[in-house]
């Protein structure tokens, strides 16, 4: 069923406000950015903002979902493994994909942590972040299961356990970059992962 004019305009305003919010948060941080600034940047009134969102916090949570959809453009862990002829090649590509994503999201990673640190006392916020964590674990588990099916790594430790360790390593790299502006060494990351799975 085709969308009517109201639905098209509503979707357009939602996307523009989302994009504006992402840009303003990355520019000033979560706490320093006001709803008014987001609206002005998007070219809408506060009325348009509250048509979509209950509050600034609600907006940010929907922004997390919005970015999650953008992230799905990243190639499937299952599809990408079929392209490679060795464990080293698959791991190299996976890590490069991560580093490219981290580079594009460098400012966003800071905002992501800022919001959580200011709202971690709320159980609903912890649940949202845990949900994203589980999505990442599932993606990594699928990737590692494909490596196991290829016979490139042993299934002795379990794909889920390795996925959790892999995510902890990657998360540490991201935090290290945000706090100290130290870029990770690709070769070292590959070596760490290979040691982890062998």
From TrEMBL:
<dbReference type="GO" id="GO:0003677">
    <property type="term" value="F:DNA binding"/>
</dbReference>
<keyword id="KW-0804">Transcription</keyword>
<dbReference type="Pfam" id="PF00440">
    <property type="entry name" value="TetR_N"/>
</dbReference>
<dbReference type="InterPro" id="IPR050624">
    <property type="entry name" value="HTH-type_Tx_Regulator"/>
</dbReference>
<keyword id="KW-0805">Transcription regulation</keyword>
<feature type="domain" description="HTH tetR-type">
    <location>
        <begin position="11"/>
        <end position="71"/>
    </location>
</feature>
<keyword id="KW-0238">DNA-binding</keyword>
<dbReference type="InterPro" id="IPR036271">
    <property type="entry name" value="Tet_transcr_reg_TetR-rel_C_sf"/>
</dbReference>
<dbReference type="InterPro" id="IPR001647">
    <property type="entry name" value="HTH_TetR"/>
</dbReference>
<dbReference type="Pfam" id="PF13977">
    <property type="entry name" value="TetR_C_6"/>
</dbReference>
<feature type="DNA-binding region" description="H-T-H motif">
    <location>
        <begin position="34"/>
        <end position="53"/>
    </location>
</feature>
<dbReference type="InterPro" id="IPR039538">
    <property type="entry name" value="BetI_C"/>
</dbReference>
<keyword id="KW-0678">Repressor</keyword>
<protein>
    <recommendedName>
        <fullName>HTH tetR-type domain-containing protein</fullName>
    </recommendedName>
</protein>
<dbReference type="InterPro" id="IPR009057">
    <property type="entry name" value="Homeodomain-like_sf"/>
</dbReference>
């Amino acid at each position: 069923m085709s969308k009517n004019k109201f639905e098209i305009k509503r979707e357009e305003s939602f996307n523009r406000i989302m994009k504006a919010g992402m840009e303003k948060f990355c520019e000033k941080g979560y706490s320093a950015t006001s709803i008014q600034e987001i609206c002005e940047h998007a070219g809408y009134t506060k009325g348009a903002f509250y048509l979509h969102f209950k509050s600034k916090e609600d907006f940010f949570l929907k922004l997390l979902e919005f970015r999650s959809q953008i992230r799905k453009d990243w190639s499937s862990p299952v599809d990408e493994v079929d392209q490679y002829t060795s464990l080293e090649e698959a791991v190299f590509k996976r890590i490069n994909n991560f580093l490219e994503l981290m580079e594009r999201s460098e400012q966003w990673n800071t905002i992501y942590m800022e919001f959580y640190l200011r709202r971690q006392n709320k159980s609903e916020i912890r649940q949202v972040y845990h949900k994203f964590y589980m999505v990442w674990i599932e993606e990594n588990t699928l990737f590692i299961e494909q490596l196991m099916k290829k016979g490139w790594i042993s299934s002795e430790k379990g794909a889920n356990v390795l996925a959790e360790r892999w995510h902890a390593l990657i998360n540490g790299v991201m935090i290290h970059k945000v706090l100290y502006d130290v870029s990770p060494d690709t070769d070292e990351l590959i070596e760490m992962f290979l040691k982890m799975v062998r």
